[in-house]
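Hi W., the 6-O-phosphono-beta-D-glucopyranose complex you wanted:
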Amino acid sequence: MPVDHSDSKVTLNHPKGSTVEILLYGATIISWKVADKQGSLQERLFVSSKASLDGSKPVRGGIPVVFPCFGAPTHPDHLKLPQHGLARNQNWSFDSIVMDNSAGVSVRLTLDSSANPKNASLYPKEFRLAYVVTLAEHQLSTDLHVENPSATETIDFQALLHTYVRAPADNVFVTPLHGLSYFDKTEATDEARATAKTETRQEVDVKNFTDSVYQGAPGQYRVTWPGGSLEIRAKEFKDVVVWNPQEEGRKMSDMEADGWKNYVCVEPGYVRGFVTLEPKKSWIGQQVLTVGQD
Ligand SMILES: O=P(O)(O)OC[C@H]1O[C@@H](O)[C@H](O)[C@@H](O)[C@@H]1O
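Structure:
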């Protein structure tokens, strides 16, 4: 079957062999496999072998969905929320199969503020999220729809797709970020973290602890390493975060030994400032991942 779903997981199978697995918990994509040139299926995302996949905590790897705040909350509406918000640690619902043909297999998952009684005390605003995941032969598209169902209130939110790209961290490069202004979250003081830097590197590596928030980014990135590459295209996600904790990764209880050596996070998002959504309006942020064919 092109789409299989159980109480906890949705699996998409493309007729040309690629597959994707999505946990309903957090709508977290936990696997994306695409054939290599020899025709053998290869995992394209990193998920820590110590990640919790039972809905007890956000998944360390794959593509967690970040909404309505990125990092520690700063907006007055978000202050009771955990780091990276509530979407990555709630159960989403399987809504429908959107498309099922040779071009792609696509499903829609949803999360409404009213679905979880906890939300009223955590977050004072109503929201409706829909996540459309589309699998093609060499491509994975993820569209996050945010709808404001209120007739009177606006919503201010941030959103980001926290993509863990499977790649050797000591030999991976992200381009083109040269000339962009960014905020370096590895700096020691609040003042230094809040001071914009300008990226001077043509090719950004993550050989050192990296946690950089690029603003006004081009929306099209290339991640390359010996023997592989991935193109990332983004729409409405105007910023991009590049993160690899290096040895700091040891502090994470769900990070496997040396796990940080096996990925780079390249995370398209709207995280500098907030999207303000007027009553009854909606917003769509999109990420498209394409495996390099070179
Ligand atoms: O451990 P978490 O909550 O999944 O976050 C992982 C990382 O996510 C990145 O997006 C942030 O920029 C980092 O600061 C953070 O450490």
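The chain has a mean pLDDT of 97.

W.
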